[in-house]
């Protein structure tokens, strides 16, 4: 038994509650900000802002995968968590099927919790070590009152089967599995409520290279079978190349480039994207000789009170006076290739 069949009832019931959008855009994010606060000073309290996500706008079409890349600390996870409303946004809109859920309370968010799921980087940390696999996968079914008793059990078995595990795994605990198997359990849990949209936060980064392709293929298959939409977060561009229709590059809380996947690899326009791409090892020695490596020195600066102008200017080899003063806007250079750089904006 495949879960997708059993899950169709849930879908019908939900689609009444969630208004259908007017076009094929499932998610549209406008001017999204997520600032964390940090207090310092004993007597004179000072509050500083960690601008983890700082005015980000993008959209994802139904059935599409938008890859999201950038170095550690760029704000990828914060963006993913804010979009699915695990965090309360500081500002901006999150339009899901045309409805702005940015200000929704717990009760209003309930139907969306079912539609939007997450797969985490570290499957061990995200699975409760004291729960059996059956209870881990069954928990979202209980929370959303989807099924009980025999039906619940059948559904758990079907999910295990769908991710390549067996009934006999249901009574075991997370520590009894390999990293790849644990990620399969995480995927089964995310699929349990028959979602439409999944935020995949570095789901393969912690896995052996040999297992990474298996997990990617599995996510790809589920996307086809269940018409899923993914926001796929990864550290480096090589990981998102095959799974993404479009890719967004993030730097210090801002999206600096968004375009169709092939276009990004063929003609990256932002200096940061160019540097990230040049860092990917090229297997062919002749091609490697030709590909000029662009050094990306230092780390991403702190998002605590970031500097003026372009956030990338402290590491950019093309930076000018204008870059110091003016923050470049993300603009369409033609055909949906968006870039935020004064060089491209001339
Ligand atoms: N709950 C929080 N409270 C305060 N600061 C936070 C919190 N979560 C994230 N940050 C800060 O926000 C910035 C962005 O963090 P985030 O985890 O979103 O980056 P990331 O791109 O996902 O990095 P990584 O690739 O390492 O997972 C970092 O400077 C981080 O320290
Ligand atoms: S705006 Fe200036 S500093 Fe920023 S990426 Fe473009 S050239 Fe570099
Ligand atoms: Mg992260």
Description:
Helix 6 crosses helix 7, helix 7 crosses helix 8 and helix 8 runs parallel beside helix 9. The chain is built from 14 helices and 12 strands. With 346 residues, the chain is α/β, with parallel strands linked by helices. It has an 8-stranded mixed sheet with strand order 6-7-8-3-9-10-12-11. A 4-stranded antiparallel sheet has the order 2-1-4-5. The chain binds adenosine-5'-triphosphate, iron/sulfur cluster and magnesium ion.
In short, what is this structure?
With about 350 residues, the chain is of the alpha/beta class. Helix content is about 35%, strand content about 20%. It binds adenosine-5'-triphosphate, iron/sulfur cluster (SF4) and magnesium ion (MG).
Strand order of the largest sheet: 6-7-8-3-9-10-12-11
Low-confidence stretches: 1-22
Alpha carbon gap, first and last residue: 58 Å
| CATH architecture name | 3-Layer(aba) Sandwich
H/I helix tally? 14
Task: Give the CATH level 1 class.
Answer: Alpha Beta
**Ligands bound, unique:** adenosine-5'-triphosphate, iron/sulfur cluster, magnesium ion
Estimate the global geometry from the Cα principal axes: globular
List the helices and strands and how they pair.
Blueprint lengths: L2 H4 L1 H10 L7 E16 L5 E16 L3 E5 L6 H8 L7 E6 L2 E2 L5 H10 E4 L3 H4 L6 H11 L5 H14 L16 H13 L5 E5 L7 H18 L2 E6 L2 H4 L5 E6 L2 E7 H6 L4 H8 L6 H6 L30 H5 L5 E2 L5 E2 L7
Parallel strand pairs: 3-8, 3-9, 6-7, 7-8
Antiparallel strand pairs: 1-2, 1-4, 4-5, 9-10, 10-12, 11-12
The protein binds adenosine-5'-triphosphate, iron/sulfur cluster (SF4) and magnesium ion (MG).
The site of magnesium ion has 3 residues, from helix 3.
